[in-house]
């Protein structure tokens, strides 16, 4: 009985010592996003992001991030009308990450959680008749929350410095439409 109590005490002390050394991580992400608005329009743009994480258990982290997914333009022209719509998206995410060690310094990362997103648009419609030309402008913004997920690889370049490559996906539900955002990003992270 005495050995069991000593063993439990030692194990709890080791757990507290490990928790005190649990690393924080800060990452900068640069990539390419692909966005599709229902069956209406799609486009690609560069994306940027910043992510902060905290490893609370071996291989498990909680993380928060901001991503600017960029934007794109949709244009249509027929005989009398010209329409142009600019779209842009961004998201703030809160989720968990599970890390699987593959080899020395190389790991597989699975991300998932809740994304609070913003979708902005601005349109210009020009109608031309034989007598007049009329231009109307409109804009709007939608926001909401949906689930995101991602998969990636990270490599420890040297102690506390990481290089990562990842894919993430977010599907935004806006009224009866959907905006799908796929993102490939290269990240540079620092553990502290």
The average pLDDT is: 88
The count of β-strands is 8
* Major sheet strand order: 1-2-3-4-5-6-7-8
- How many DSSP H or I helices? 1
Q: State the end-to-end CA separation.
A: 40 Å
Shape: elongated
The name of the CATH topology is Porin
Ranges with pLDDT <50 over ≥5 residues? 4-20
What is the CATH C level class, in words? Mainly Beta
What percent of residues adopt helix (DSSP H or I)?
under 10%
Number of structural domains: 1
The structure class reads mainly beta
Largest sheet: 8 strands, antiparallel, barrel
CATH architecture grouping? Beta Barrel
Radius of gyration: 23 Å
N-to-C SSE string, H for helix and E for strand: HEEEEEEEE
Strand content: over 45%
Q: Any overview of this molecule?
A:
There is one protein chain. With 192 residues, the chain is mainly beta. The protein has a single domain, classed as Porin. The protein has one helix and eight strands. It is elongated, with a radius of gyration of 23 Å. The protein starts with a helix and ends with a strand.
Q: Short summary of the structure?
A:
The protein has 192 residues and is mainly beta. 10% of the residues lie in helices and 78% in strands. The longest helix has 19 residues.
Q: What's the SSE blueprint?
A:
Layout: H1 2-20, E1 24-37, E2 41-57, E3 60-77, E4 81-103, E5 106-128, E6 133-158, E7 161-174, E8 177-191
Antiparallel strand pairs: 1-2, 1-8, 2-3, 3-4, 4-5, 5-6, 6-7, 7-8
């Amino acid at each position: 009985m005495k050995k069991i109590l000593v063993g439990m005490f030692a194990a709890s002390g080791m757990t507290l010592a490990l928790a005190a050394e649990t690393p924080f991580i800060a990452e900068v992400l640069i990539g390419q996003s692909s966005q599709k608005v229902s069956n209406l329009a799609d486009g690609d743009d560069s994306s940027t992001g910043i992510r902060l994480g905290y490893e609370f258990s071996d291989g498990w982290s909680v993380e928060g991030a901001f991503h600017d997914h960029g934007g794109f333009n949709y244009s249509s022209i027929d005989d009398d009308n010209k329409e142009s719509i600019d779209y842009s998206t961004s998201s703030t995410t809160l989720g968990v990450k599970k890390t699987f060690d593959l080899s020395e310094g190389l790991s597989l990362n699975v991300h998932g959680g809740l994304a609070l997103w913003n979708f902005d648009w601005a349109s210009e419609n020009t109608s031309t008749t034989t007598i007049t030309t009329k231009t109307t402008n409109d804009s709007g913004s939608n926001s909401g929350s949906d689930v995101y997920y991602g998969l990636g690889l990270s490599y420890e370049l040297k102690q506390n410095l990481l290089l990562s490559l990842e894919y993430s996906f977010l599907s935004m539900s806006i009224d009866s439409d959907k905006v799908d955002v796929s993102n490939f990003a290269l990240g540079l992270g620092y553990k502290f």
